[in-house]
Specification:
The protein is an alpha+beta fold. The protein folds into two domains: 243 residues, 3-Layer(aba) Sandwich (Rossmann fold), CATH 3.40.50; 132 residues, OB fold (Dihydrolipoamide Acetyltransferase, E2P). The chain has ten helices and 20 strands. The strands form four sheets. The protein has a six-stranded mixed sheet, with helices on both faces. The protein has a five-stranded antiparallel sheet with strand order 13-12-11-14-20. Helix 2 packs across helix 4, helix 2 packs parallel to helix 5 and helix 4 crosses helix 5.
Amino acid sequence: MAEVILENVCKVFAGNVKAVDDVSLAIADREFIVLVGPSGCGKSTTLRMVAGLEDISAGTIRIGDRVVNNIAPKDRNIAMVFQNYALYPHMTVYKNMAFGLMLRRQHGFWDNLLWALFAPGKFRAARAERRQIDQKVRDAAKMLGIENLLERRPKALSGGQRQRVAVGRAIVREPKAYLFDEPLSNLDAKLRIEMRAEIKKLHRRVQTTTIYVTHDQEEAMTLGDRVVVMKDGLVQQVATPFEVYERPVNRFVAGFVGTPPMNFLEGRLLQENGRLYFDEGDNRLPVADVHRARLESRTDGPIVVGVRPEMLSPAGNSSSGAVLKARVAVVEPLGDRMDVHVGTSRHPHITCRVDARQTIREGESTTFAVEMDRVHFFEPGPMGRNITLG
Ligand code: ATP
């Protein structure tokens, strides 16, 4: 077990493609950290540099107390689980799991009956080592519920079972850190959720530093002690899932995290009769007292308000407080909740997530109460800073 430290790490590929731009991260011993971001943001390249599968263009990576920049992958004492599992097709599950350990045996050379006659001490040491490996493989198989599959070959396994074998192969190594690169991408939705829970349980059990890469924000939020949101090779925010959701540093993070995504309404702030309002075009929403001090000086330019779908609820007949009047385009039932897609003349795509027992009809104009103390205000532009955080 070990901490993993990245200091000002960069990766520039041939053709001057800057895949990773000055990333610094301190991953604590035993922490589960998830790198998340859209395709091409540099998360896999970052992971591959930690694994040693890509050279580092600039910066330093430490695993435990060792700088590993120039250390070969096999000597970094980390275990990686890939999206495509990378199992050996001609080997049984048992051999797939034992293979890495067998290669690294200290006394492997003496593991031959001949040596029982000529060097019995060395032969006994080799056999003891083999028994230890056997025990590790069986313990890991038990932990993952695949004891009954040890004699099968990968082609006779389901996707989920193959994934378990790939994880098992990593566990037996007892590495300093686990690196997972989109390990659940090839599984169907139900199995993904099951395996996600298993990976989390496993981490609680083995307590080993884990770096996990995914493009799926829900997976990131459910798994990570902390998540690292990346875009264009840059780290946007490193924080707990709660913090990233509740206190996104900019509009990109706010829009990336959460399903359905946050609604962004562009407009202006205006003062009237001593009150501050956000003017969306068709609607004026009073700014909550908690945000007032930070926003009062911003009445001269455009501003963006971020409203999560669950912050909008049918207002009934109430016309007081913060109310958004909009036309209902589509209602999508989801069981206990429903997504209601509404629009105003300036903002035709606003999503509200509401209780399914509400009666809302497509085509009607209706009012939604806005929880103004929970919304966020951003500077204009796709990367606009969250002003409400100060
Ligand atoms: P995905 O989720 O699609 O795998 P990612 O966030 O993991 O995306 P990377 O694979 O790290 O992204 O790639 C980051 C950037 O570096 C991309 O623009 C990609 O095209 C580029 N890149 C990756 N590998 C190479 C390479 N070997 N040569 C040149 N450019 C590369």
